[in-house]
Write a structure and sequence with these properties.
Order of helices and strands of chain B: HHHEHEHEHEHEEHHEEHEHEHEEHEH
Shape of chain A: globular
Number of helices of chain A: 2
CATH superfamily of chain A: Beta-grasp domain
Number of strands of chain A: 5
CATH architecture of chain A: Roll
Strand content of chain B: 15-25%
Strand order of the largest sheet of chain B: 3-2-1-4-5-6-7-8
Distance between the termini of chain A: 40 Å
Distance between the termini of chain B: 46 Å
Radius of gyration of chain A: 13 Å
Number of domains of chain B: 2
Structural class of chain A: alpha+beta
CATH class of the largest domain in chain B: Alpha Beta
Strand order of the largest sheet of chain A: 2-1-5-3-4
CATH class of chain A: Alpha Beta
Order of helices and strands of chain A: EEHHEEE
CATH topology of chain A: Ubiquitin-like (UB roll)
Shape of chain B: elongated
Largest sheet of chain B: 8 strands, mixed
Number of strands of chain B: 13
Oligomer: heterodimer
Helix content of chain B: 25-40%
Structural class of chain B: alpha/beta
Largest interface: A-B, 28 and 51 residues
Chain lengths: ~90, ~400
């Protein structure tokens, strides 16, 4: 099972869970599995044309998928995939 | 002034002695701190530890930008301030506190908003910038001003139990600049996809941790000791005590300093972040003020009050409404009549307006009235004994 780390702002769609696991061979299918099993999360990850949103970064290990094969980046059970959203909070 | 010309009094040498006896930092590092200047933008959750540690460490000149005043709800995490500061300008209260902490440094107060008009001038007067702001338009403004003025931007942000930190636009050994915020996030999330006021909140210690890390990175940038977070993003999730460090790469499409720069000056950041633009403008709904609503109650006008906030907000303060959180209003129409006026209320009036639009669109309601200003206005004008949050 591949491991996906869910950031705090998206955990409201995953019943508060920080980790999502699914069998997937690449990043896109892992994100798709997440979208299929958690209603409402899709539009936060992808725009209408199916591209990853520009305020979301996806990492495999410590590397940005844009430096790899994008959402086609192959994954296996050993890697950790992270969704990193832009966050502005500073608690004034 | 070059740091080589810096001298210290006996009091200063004693004060900074724990720096001076670190072999790789020593008096050379301390001279660099004293010769340097840092602008801290925002003196809130992140700004509090930042300012305290930068002042304690002996940064020669510290600028504070903040337009806000201290509120009682700040004290849970903004450790710069005490109960005596509530209602006082943050920048002025901070300056007072820092001067009492370290009389050997210069504190400059900028009791103003950080805006497109003053950003570049303010940034240009300091060596290093530390971003302790709390919203996307200002984050991008800080970043762009730093890139355009060739300044380092030491960054951190927090949300609930999670924090991020990095060092942007640092001058590297090869003479180039490290990645900046736009390399990491080319564009901000549109307003609908940003956590709303109902979903905010931060655990009190977290800004202390991230703001302290920022202060540490500022000292490293200035002293040249160690490897900073330039080109890396640090993530901390306190719930599981997990930390990660991810690589941040330069993006050739960066509009400021990519391969084909298209932006040579500051822009309208509210617009860039989709705030107040036509797509954000919403259909108007019927509304009434808290004074009018108070009058209705006094006159016994028949109505129902619906409170669309979350249960945890209801627990802090409520004004006698029936609690139906925004996410559940469409399934709760059996509790929302169509034959008498229904006043809808939230914290400030934004979520209640949204609830009204959703109910009108999905179920054809025509009797819904938004309470403008929500429970905040109600507390201020009618029921001061309620708690504000």
């Amino acid at each position: 099972m591949a491991t996906l780390i869910i950031p705090t702002p998206l955990r409201k769609f995953t019943d508060g869970n920080a980790v999502f696991e699914a069998t997937a061979s690449d990043v896109r299918s892992l994100l798709q599995a997440l979208s299929n099993s958690h209603e409402g999360i899709q539009k936060h990850l992808f725009d209408d044309s199916g591209d990853l949103r520009s305020f979301i970064r996806v990492y495999v290990g410590d590397e940005d998928i844009n430096e790899l094969e994008g959402t086609d980046t192959k994954i296996d059970d050993r890697v950790e995939v992270s969704i990193i959203p832009a966050n502005a909070g500073g608690s004034k | 002034m070059s740091h080589h010309d810096i001298t210290f009094s006996k009091e200063e040498l004693e004060r900074y002695s724990r720096h001076l006896i670190i072999p790789e930092f020593n008096i050379e590092g301390q001279k660099k701190l004293k010769a340097s200047s840092v602008l801290v933008i925002g003196s809130g959750g992140l700004g509090s530890p930042l300012l305290l540690y930068l002042a304690a460490a002996g940064i020669g000149r510290i600028g504070i930008v903040d337009f806000d005043t201290v509120d009682a709800s700040n004290l849970q995490r903004q450790v710069l301030f005490g109960i005596q500061d509530v209602g006082v300008s943050k920048a002025i209260a901070a300056s007072k506190r820092l001067k009492s902490l370290n009389p050997h440094i210069k504190i400059e107060v900028h009791n103003t908003m950080f805006t497109v008009e003053n950003a570049r001038e303010l940034v240009s007067k300091y060596d290093v910038i530390a971003d302790g702001t709390d919203n996307f338009p200002t984050r991008y403004l800080v970043n762009d001003a730093c890139v355009l003025e060739n300044k380092v931007n030491v960054y951190a942000s927090i949300f609930r139990f999670e924090g991020q930190a990095s060092v942007f636009n640092e001058l590297l050994a090869d003479g180039t600049r490290g990645p900046n915020y736009r390399d990491l996030f080319p564009a901000p999330p549109p307003p609908g996809l940003v956590p709303s006021c109902a979903e905010g909140g931060v655990i009190g210690v977290l800004p202390g941790i991230l703001g302290s890390l920022q202060a540490l990175e500022v000292l490293k940038v200035i002293s040249g000791v160690g490897d900073t977070l330039s080109g890396r993003l640090f993530l901390f999730d306190a719930t599981g005590f997990t930390t990660r460090i991810l690589k941040v790469r330069k993006n050739k499409d960066n509009p400021l300093n990519g391969e084909n720069p298209t932006q040579t000056e500051l822009i309208n950041y509210e617009q860039f972040c989709g705030i107040g633009t036509s797509t954000e403008k919403k259909r108007k709904v019927a509304e009434m003020s808290v004074q009018e609503f108070d009058q209705w109650r006094k006159e016994g006008v028949k109505h129902i009050l619906i409170d669309v906030r979350e249960p945890y907000e209801f627990g802090i303060a409520e004004m006698g409404g029936e609690l139906i959180p925004l996410a559940t209003v469409l399934e709760s129409t059996d509790r929302i009549p169509k034959d008498i006026p229904v006043v809808v209320q939230c914290r400030s009036g934004a979520r209640s307006a949204r609830a009204i639009r959703e109910l009108e669109d999905a179920h054809g309601y025509t009797n819904l009235i938004n309470l403008t200003g929500g429970i905040l206005d109600w507390q201020e004008a009618i029921q001061p004994e309620l708690a504000r949050y």
